[in-house]
Amino acid sequence: MRDHIWPKGTCLAMLNNGTVLGDVTVLDLSEGVAGPLCTRLLADLGAQVLKVERPGSGDVSRGARPSLPTGGAQGQSALFLSLNQSKKSVTLNLETTVGEQLLKQLAQDHDILVESFPPGYLGQMGLDYPALAQADPRLIYTSITPFGQTGPYRDYKGSDIVAQATGALMHTIGLPDREPLKVGGDAALYTTGVSAFSAVMLALYARDCQGHGQHVDISAMEAITVAQIHSSIHSQFGREPERRETNLVRASDGWISPGLETGVQEETWDRACDLMGVPELKDDPRFNTPQARREHQQELLDVVGRWTAALPKEEVYHTLQGLRSIAGYVATVADLQNSKQLAFRGFWQQIEIESGVQGLLPGPPFKMEGGSVSPAAAPALGEHNQEVFCGRLGYSPEELEQLRRSGVV
C-alpha cells in the first residue's frame, strides 16, 4: 500500500496520475445496494476495486430485475450494472479454509475493505477487523449493516423499508390521517452508501495524517436518522413533526410544486397573479401576504391548479422559476434521461455493458476536474479469477482449476 500524504494546498487530482484515488486499492466484499454504491463511487474517483463474490451466484443484485435485453447471460441486472461498473470480479468461498487464507492475502494488498455481512460473521473465520488489522494496521475496514456492529439491534435483519421506518423518515411522509408512506426505490440504502463513501474518504485522509487505518462502522438506521435532525430538534421544543398535505398541482403531463405559498417576494406574487390571469388576487386578504398564503394554501393551490392544468409541467416550471419562485416539477425516469441539465453536465454515460449492447448509466453525483475516470462495464462473475489468483497471487492455471473444482473459487 502507498502513502497519500496530501500537503497543504496541493491539488489531489495532480497527486494520483489524473485521478483523486488512482493509487488506492479497494476489496469489495459487499453486495446489494449500499456497499456496492460506496465502492462504485470510489471507483469513479479512480480507485482499483476488486469485487469478491460467492462462486456460482455472486452478488444478490445480479438476480434483480430487469436484466439485460439479451437475457443477462452473465448475471448482469440493471441494478448490478449500475452499481458495479469499473470493478473487477473474483469468486471466493469464504467458508473454506483455503478461501479464508486467500482473502487474507488479498486484504494485505488493499488499502480499503468494504463488507456488508451480519455482525460477527467474518469474525468466526478470523476475517474481522482485529484479525486483518494485526497483519496490516493501515487497513481501512468498513462494515455496512442495518443497525451497526453494537447495540441491542445489531443482530436484527434490515432492508430499505426497515431503515426508513426505524430512522423516522416514514413518520414524516404521507397524509396526516393515513398510514405513513415509504419513499420509493431504495432511498435509504443509497443514502447509506453515500454515507459510507464519505466516511471511507475521511478515514483515508485520517490514515494519511496519522499513519494507521481504522474500523468504519456504518448503520443504515443512523444514516437515515441523521436526515431527521430537524424532527429531533422540534420534539425537544415540544413540537412533534406532523405529516402534511403536499403542495402539488396537476399540469397537463404531470405534477408541479409551484412554490408560491411561502417565501416569495410581493413583486413575485403580483407578477404570478398577472400571469395566471387573476390580477384581482393581488389584494385579496387570503393571499396578499406570505402568512395568509400559508393559512389558505389549499385555496391557493386550487387557483394555481386551474392555470397549470392545460400547460406542460416543464413550461410551468421554467416560467415560475423566471419569476424567482421556488418551483419544481415531478420528473419521471424518461424526464431524467432527456434532462437538458443532466445532459449539459454529462451525468448520463454511454458504455458498452455487454458485447454489442450499449447502456446509458448514471454517473457519480459530483464533478471534480480531472478527478474521475471514464466508466467501464460491470464485470462478469469471476471474470478476473485468472488475472488475480494466477497473475497476482502466483497460482498456476492447473492449481486455479483445482480450486474451482473444490468449490473454493
Notable characteristics:
Rossmann fold; three-stranded antiparallel beta sheet; six-stranded parallel beta sheet; formyl-coa transferase, domain 3; 2 domains; 17 helices; elongated; 409 residues; alpha/beta
Structure description:
This protein has 409 residues and is α/β, with parallel strands linked by helices. The protein folds into two domains: 12-228 and 349-405, Rossmann fold, CATH 3.40.50.10540; 249-329, formyl-coa transferase, domain 3, CATH 3.30.1540. It is 37% helix and 13% strand. The protein has helices at 12-15, 34-44, 78-83, 97-107, 129-135, 160-166, 187-210, 220-226, 229-236, 266-276, 290-295, 297-308, 313-322, 333-337, 340-344, 385-392, 397-405, and strands spanning 25-28, 48-53, 87-91, 112-115, 140-145, 215-219, 249-251, 254-257, 328-329, 348-354, 357-362. Helix 2 (34-44) packs across helix 7 and helix 6 (160-166) packs across helix 8 (220-226).
Q: Could you write a compact summary of the structure shown?
A:
The chain has helices at residues 12-15, 34-44, 78-83, 97-107, 129-135, 160-166, 187-210, 220-226, 229-236, 266-276, 290-295, 297-308, 313-322, 333-337, 340-344, 385-392, 397-405; strands spanning 25-28, 48-53, 87-91, 112-115, 140-145, 215-219, 249-251, 254-257, 328-329, 348-354, 357-362. By secondary structure, the chain is of the alpha/beta class.
